[in-house]
Amino acid sequence: MLEELNSRFRRSIGIKLLSMTLVAFILSVPLVIVSNFIGERSDTHDEAAEDISQSWSDRQTLAGPFIIVPFVDTRSSGELGERSEVRHAWFLPDQLEIDGEITPEIRYRSIYEVAVYSASLEIAGAFSAPDFTEWNVETDNILWDEARLIFGVTDMRGIREAVTLSWGDEAFGFSSGISESPAKVIPTGISVPIEAEQAGDFSFALELNGSRALQFVPVGGETTVELTSPWPDPSFDGAFLPDERSVSEEGFEASWHVLDLNRPYGQKWRDSTVDLYGSAFGLSLAVPVDHYLKARRSTRYAFLVVVLTLLTFFLIELRCRKHAHPFQYILIGLALCLFYLLLLSLSEHMLFDWAYLIAGISTVGLTALYVRALFKDRWLSGLTAIVLTGLYGFVFVLIQLEDYALLVGTIGLILLLALTMFLTRNFSELAAALTSPRPEDA
Predict the structure, then answer these.
(1) Secondary structure letter of residue 197 according to DSSP
(2) Of 22, 193, 214, 355, which is most buried, counting CB atoms within 10 Å of its CB?
(3) Contacts of residue 159, Cβ cutoff 8 Å, sequence gap at least 6
(4) Per-chain mean pLDDT for the chain
(5) What pLDDT, in 10s, does the model give residues 162-190?
(6) What pTM, to 2 d.p., does this model score?
(7) Sheet with 251-259, edge to edge strand ranges
(8) Exposure of 275 by Cβ count < 10 A (0-12 exposed, 13-18 middle, 19+ buried)?
């Protein structure tokens, strides 16, 4: 009696469909855990990169140079009479030219790596004589003896050598720090007192360390930046892309040309919180870590792979009148889940494509061998291997595609649905055959 009930239970289509549904939702738990683990490993990589940057020097954004001239602003305060305060006028160069060579280097923290660099920059340009006429500032109120030239550097630890300014025929040494009021616009940097009453040409060399990114603020009436580097895979970003660039395996060359008309701020202003850094441009030298992104994208299709695999086994049961226990479905599903964990662990030590291939072969091989041991049938084992290979191949194509992933994925799902509809076109007959006792059970 017990054997008969067990036999009917195994052949109940409703019970099998319910069991498959429950198994699929049970397997969604380890899939979520694996997806979260991928995110944790990606965050760990970012933390390691940040630690290296803190030890070397962080991302660098260079702003300037500017001429800052203090002046006394006298205002009427009604019954209180006149009130005077010291304000600061900002003047930007008419021309700014930056020529630089970036020497990259890879630094490691455990299995993680980050790109750092040493930049050798030649900065030159010209200032017009500061003009206060449109602000109606009296000549005696201009504090020319307190004028300074400032240059913003986001991470001061990166300056490798002393910086000397050539101003006309004279030379001045920069010192660290910016006065309180200009620091509201340029938080950190270097400065030097200059004689700013007359127009002047300037130039100085800057030896700078940084990591991952280097950007420039286009403060010149015309700003020209030319960079060269042996780094083969730069990412140009910021408010402006290069006007000309050449990238090869030997490195890159890039040049930018930006006018003051392209920026949201003018060539001079009085005390103001101008957003200079919003117009910064440059490049990133970050080491590609797209294996985390690709691993995360692959997990998006994990539940689909699990469901289609379970559906394959269900169709095998219908057509071949083979039976599998729900626990065996769970084991097969867990093998599919471990694929993504194996993929992640391998991709941290080798190219993602090779990691995907090895993880796929391991998972397909393990599942196919288990099916052979379960059903005692080489043909079904081979069919399982073919189906899983097709599914993982389909997912791999979707991972590689970005712009067309949705289109290709949708077409693939329609084709899979059409195939499933074709195989189950006589579902009632298959279900009746499955529920009827086999000769060996009579």
Answers:
(1) S
(2) 214
(3) 153, 190, 206, 207, 208, 209
(4) 82
(5) 999 998 888 989 998 887 667 778 889 99
(6) 0.70
(7) 170-173, 164-167, 200-211, 112-127, 95-109, 222-229, 251-259, 244-248
(8) exposed
